């Protein structure tokens, strides 16, 4: 089977020393040990220079906690505030780390923060745990189609901080050789604008790439995909399924713990592997896991098709090992909330800026059934430039179907659905209602990028 675009990315990073050795002795690694943390730092200081922070961590032999925040985005803003303020739960733990806060993706050092492997780029907040040499211990973060709070909490972060500290200060750690190789830090940093897809992405989306525009996380995801798109290797039915959830293999995890199993779906890969409610995940894909995001990273780095994913968990004092046996299609998930899909340079654009939901009272007045499409087009500041506007679509029209299909979607999920189901140049026929409720059809050719 040919490797997908993302598998090729991971192979190239593996060649640079980003993978962990195979077959660790997990029963020994997870055996209890006396771990002592040093005295905490006097206060939490959020540094902005990662290179200098690495030097400081080396001097003090402390781990680093690096947060990446895309400031213009609203999602995760409350959680970001909780982390910055610390409070009685987080502040004593954060004082054990060299803490860093980064807010500029253009200047991100990909040698230290290899986002292709370790970051869900449809998020505006993400946390990284590094050792003093720059090895990635793990990550923290996450959201889903429901909200930006269903996968993370201050309690979950506190649990992850404790696990990382226990791992970092375990006196046996140097014997295990389970952490990734230290990155080579000579020369200038490699940033997202140095990625192979940046020049092509910038030509295709000049407005998004303008010098005055923030390079959002989702744009980095688009840049990473661009070489495969240019080469015709990208399959939108297969290659958008990044960062699978535990539910993809049959698990739900307790949010505030991050690793404790809450439920196991019958007949799922997790059930067949032997996992039960109350088990605590410890490793996956050959790597130790400290958070739900770490487990998702192991799934993310696994093949898109048939695969066997090593997994380790604790059941009381016992250490259990097995494999998650997954089949083609196991990674499929809800994409509607992902901006990197809605804005991707693949598939068709709607021909207008946004799809706004029609209020329930107006839907009833127009006799549009619940569960059917009812959206209005938002055109932005220059509506006359859009293909749909040129064909006759106006802000007052209520769109009830696209080429006869009528899912009840609006906002970003509608835009994503359109991109996933239609191609540039395809004939699009919108079924719309006028103000008086009378039907009308509006047809145009779907554009690619607008």
Number of domains: 2
- At the third CATH level, what is the topology name of the largest domain? Glutaredoxin
Largest sheet, if any? 4 strands, mixed
Terminal Cα span:
35 Å
Question: How are the strands of the largest sheet arranged?
Answer: 2-1-3-4
Q: What oligomeric state is this?
A: single chain
Give the low-confidence spans: 1-8, 11-21
Number of helices, where a helix is a run of at least 4 consecutive DSSP H or I residues: 16
Beta-strand content estimate: 15-25%
Average predicted confidence as pLDDT: 92
Q: What is the CATH first-level class name of the largest domain?
A: Alpha Beta
CATH superfamily of the largest domain: Glutaredoxin
Q: Name the helicity range.
A: 25-40%
CATH architecture group name of the largest domain: 3-Layer(aba) Sandwich
Overall geometry? globular
- The helix/strand class is alpha+beta
């Amino acid at each position: 089977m040919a490797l997908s675009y993302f598998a090729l990315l991971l192979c190239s990073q593996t060649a640079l020393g980003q993978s962990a050795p195979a077959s660790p002795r997990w029963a020994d690694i997870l055996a209890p040990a006396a771990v002592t943390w040093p005295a905490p730092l006097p206060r939490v200081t959020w540094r902005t220079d990662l290179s200098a922070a690495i030097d400081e961590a080396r001097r003090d032999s402390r781990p680093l906690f690096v947060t990446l925040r895309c400031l213009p985005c609203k999602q995760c803003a409350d959680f970001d505030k909780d982390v910055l303020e610390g409070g009685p739960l987080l502040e004593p733990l954060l004082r054990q780390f060299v803490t860093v806060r980064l807010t500029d993706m253009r200047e991100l050092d990909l040698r230290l923060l290899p986002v292709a492997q370790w970051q869900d780029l449809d998020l505006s907040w993400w946390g990284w745990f590094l050792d003093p040499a720059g090895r990635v211990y793990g990550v923290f973060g996450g959201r889903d189609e429901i909200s930006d709070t269903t996968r993370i909490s201050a309690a979950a972060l506190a649990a992850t901080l404790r696990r990382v500290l226990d791992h970092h200060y375990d006196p046996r750690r140097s014997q295990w050789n389970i952490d990734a190789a230290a990155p080579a830090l000579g020369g200038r940093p490699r940033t997202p604008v140095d990625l192979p897809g940046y020049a092509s992405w910038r030509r295709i989306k000049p407005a998004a790439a303008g010098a005055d525009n923030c390079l959002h996380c989702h744009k980095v995801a688009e840049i990473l995909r661009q070489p495969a798109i240019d080469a015709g290797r990208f399959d939108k039915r297969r290659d958008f399924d990044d960062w699978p959830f535990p539910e993809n293999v049959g698990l739900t995890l307790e949010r505030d713990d991050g690793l404790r199993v809450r439920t196991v779906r019958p007949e799922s890969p997790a059930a067949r592997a032997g996992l039960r409610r109350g088990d605590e995940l410890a490793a996956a894909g050959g790597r130790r896991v400290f958070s739900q995001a770490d487990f998702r990273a192991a799934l993310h780095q696994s093949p898109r098709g048939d695969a066997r994913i090593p997994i380790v968990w604790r059941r009381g004092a016992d250490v259990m090992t097995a494999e998650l046996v997954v089949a083609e299609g196991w990674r499929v998930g809800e994409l509607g909330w992902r901006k990197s899909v809605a804005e991707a340079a693949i598939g068709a654009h709607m021909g207008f800026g946004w799809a706004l939901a029609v209020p329930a009272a107006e839907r009833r007045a127009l006799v549009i059934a619940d569960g059917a499409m009812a959206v209005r087009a938002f055109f932005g500041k220059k509506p006359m430039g859009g293909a749909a506007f040129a064909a006759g679509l106006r802000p007052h029209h209520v769109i009830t179907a696209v080429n006869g299909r009528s899912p009840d979607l609006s906002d970003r999920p509608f835009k994503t659905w359109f991109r996933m189901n239609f191609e540039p140049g395809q004939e699009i026929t919108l079924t719309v209602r006028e103000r008086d409720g009378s039907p009308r059809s509006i047809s145009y050719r779907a554009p690619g990028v607008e």
